[in-house]
Amino acid sequence: MSPTSESPDNPALAAEARIARTAVTVFPLLVLVAGVVGYLTPSTFTPLAPSVPYLLGLIMFCMGLTLTPPDLASVAKRPWAVVLGIVAHYVIMPGAGWAIAHALQLEPELAVGVILVGCAPSGTASNVMAFLAKGDVALSVAVASVSTLIAPVVTPLLVLLLAGSYLPIDAGAMVLDIVKTVLLPVILGVLARRFAKGLVARALPVLPWASAIVIAFIVAIVVAGSASKLAAAGGIVFLAVLLHNGFGLGLGYLAGKVGRLDDRARRALAFEVGMQNSGLAATLATAHFSPLAALPSAVFSLWHNVSGAIVAAWLARRPIRDSARDQGAATGSRHST
């Protein structure tokens, strides 16, 4: 879902805002219920582990259906802000994951799982959170789109660099998996929207809910796979995820401030940096490492939606702090790029 920035008096925007608020309220609950069910009935979901890559592909296809030419064109219109967002995303979250894994002295499988979450592209719900926080939605969509499109190259390289000391990393196989489960489905979704506009337009209202249900199903499968170790590892994993997500949200906003972007853009970057595609991380962890390595992804999937909704509600109640100096500096920086 990629909400648009329109007048607050626009009835369509008001309806979209209601749908977005409902989604961010229901989605964490749905994921939590899925996790509990997966934990209590692991034998039901464990055999479904091979289906996780296909489920992720379905989510990314839905993401592709929501992308429009204006979304992609916005990258060219504001390259400085988009590049800043991409660099912040792929520096802050991988670095924070590595630092947290070391500081908490996580066992190798959990350390790789935390780092892998940090190396994933932006989360699929980040655009909604930016919308609710009165942030720059166009920038949010642009950063999320580009971070996803370059993930087949960037994510495996970062995992190899930061997690290679914990477990053997097959970066080449990881590249192929991301191409198959992320890049190709997104491209197919974009093409489907281009050549089947009417059908896609009718399907768009249900896409956020379809994605939420599929993500919840992935969480149930991941939790089921590590249910036997969840009681022992759950506390330290939640602490790692809490720190990871908190650093991402805070440092993402700070990156926008250091880059002299306006307040709406800073709000967008907070979510683009702090929210990860935990479904992709869970898929890669399951395929290349172990169910235990996928546990941080499952916990992150729940927590970043809860924290994102809380932070978005808090920011929405704060006035937009744009000064002429900041806006002029940001405009000048973009024109000089």
Automatic annotation (TrEMBL):
InterPro entries hit by this protein: BilAc:Na_symport/Acr3, Bilac:Na_transpt, Na+/solute_symporter_sf
Transmembrane feature ranges: 20-40, 52-68, 80-104, 110-132, 139-167, 173-192, 204-224, 230-256, 268-289, 295-316
Primary location group: membrane
Membrane topology recorded in Swiss-Prot or TrEMBL: Multi-pass membrane protein
Subcellular location, record wording: Membrane
Keywords, in A-Z order: Membrane, Transmembrane, Transmembrane helix
GO cellular component, one term: membrane
Protein name: Bile acid:Na+ symporter, BASS family
